[in-house]
Amino acid sequence: MRSIRQIKSTEGKIMLVRVDFNLPIKNGKVEDSFRIKKTLPTIKFLQKKGAKIILITHLGKGGKTLAPVAEALGKFIKVKFFSDIVGTQAQKMIGDMKNGEVVLLENLRNDKGEQGCNKIFAKNLSKLADIYVNEAFSVSHREDASIVLLPKLMPAYAGFQLEEEVRNLSCAFKNPKRPFLFILGGAKFSTKMPLIKKYLKLADQVFIGGALANDFSKAKGYVIGKSLVDDTDYGIEKVLKNKKLILPVDVVVRSGDELINKAVNQVKSNESILDIGDQSVKNLALLIKKSKLILWNGPLGKYEDGGAGSTKKLLRLVASSKTLSIIGGGDTVTLISEMKIEKKFSFVSTGGGSTLDFLANGSLPGIKALE
């Protein structure tokens, strides 16, 4: 990938910067500005170089306005918001831009051409600027028009955060430090089984928590009650034989109005698993202290229903260690942001699905488009 540092002349040039400001919004206000903060070094670098900066992003599945995002961004830099994408209003406003100015166009997904990877839509976007910059690692696994078509239509470069993501996440599969511990939680078994199989080969230990662990418990013949589970056959029985695999030995269950810590083989049919248990936390804590590299993706409990206790406890332990720590996954990053400990890890990825795909495949469609 070519870096924005390699652009020979940016003075007066219009830069079309694809960011990912698909942020959580409640009551018209952005709840978490983590991804905004991560794009600021690239935006400010281009500003200092005298460029005119157009930011493009999606929000949700379409039909929503980016006005709340523009308001949140305005707390960090001066920005103008245009409620237009490729129409005459946007074209006129861009034509009047001065060097160093930043504008945000309306939600890309409000045009069907974005997710439809439409060549005409991409061409109309490309006409707005001189140079394209991908600063949206977290959506670079998607083959959308702004991700994979724009780099083919104009000079294309990688932003600082995209470079950081590639460099740091590559540490997990290019000569990783050892002992290497991989912690995997969350749900969506279908997207994570390839990761489990790959890192059972690459890592020294792989700990499985979250809803993923329920599938393993069920495969071992244990009762999982009302807990979330994926009934698809992914060949778990074969994975269970791997000596590197570590599973929770106890869990926290919701039984009526009570939260009870019990062994994994004692869960009842009317209970639901909420988190990993105290002994599992102790076992994982010992592994964390011995490890030289920790790769963590996904929460270990149903954090949105009050099952975040173990995840928070172990995240603090990793944060306080001197271990090389790489953290990813949208829900995990949300917790870290709430806990205000992001700077205590070696690297925190902005990606969710993109992080998983990159770790599994070593690249992404959006990255390949820049090569």
In short:
With 371 residues, the chain is α/β, with parallel strands linked by helices. It has helices at 34-48, 67-73, 88-95, 119-126, 145-153, 160-169, 189-202, 210-219, 236-240, 278-290, 309-320, 330-339, 353-361, 365-368, and strands spanning 14-19, 25-26, 29-30, 52-56, 80-81, 102-104, 131-135, 156-158, 180-184, 205-208, 245-246, 250-255, 258-263, 272-276, 293-297, 324-328, 347-348. Strand 5 (80-81), helix 3 and strand 6 form a beta-alpha-beta unit.
Per-chain topology:
Layout: E1 14-19, E2 25-26, E3 29-30, H1 34-48, E4 52-56, H2 67-73, E5 80-81, H3 88-95, E6 102-104, H4 119-126, E7 131-135, H5 145-153, E8 156-158, H6 160-169, E9 180-184, H7 189-202, E10 205-208, H8 210-219, H9 236-240, E11 245-246, E12 250-255, E13 258-263, E14 272-276, H10 278-290, E15 293-297, H11 309-320, E16 324-328, H12 330-339, E17 347-348, H13 353-361, H14 365-368
Parallel strand pairs: 1-4, 1-7, 4-6, 5-6, 7-8, 9-10, 9-15, 10-11, 15-16, 16-17
Antiparallel strand pairs: 2-3, 12-13, 12-14
Helix pairs in contact: 4-5, 7-13, 10-11
How are the strands ordered across the major sheet? 5-6-4-1-7-8
Q: Helical segment tally?
A: 14
Mean model confidence by pLDDT: 96
Give the overall silhouette. Answer: elongated
* Radius of gyration based on Cα positions: 22 Å
Helix content: 25-40%
Structural class from helices and strands? alpha/beta
What percentage of amino acids are in beta strands? 15-25%
Topology, number of strands:
17
Let me know the largest β-sheet: 6 strands, parallel
Report the uncertain regions. Answer: none
Distance between the termini: 5 Å
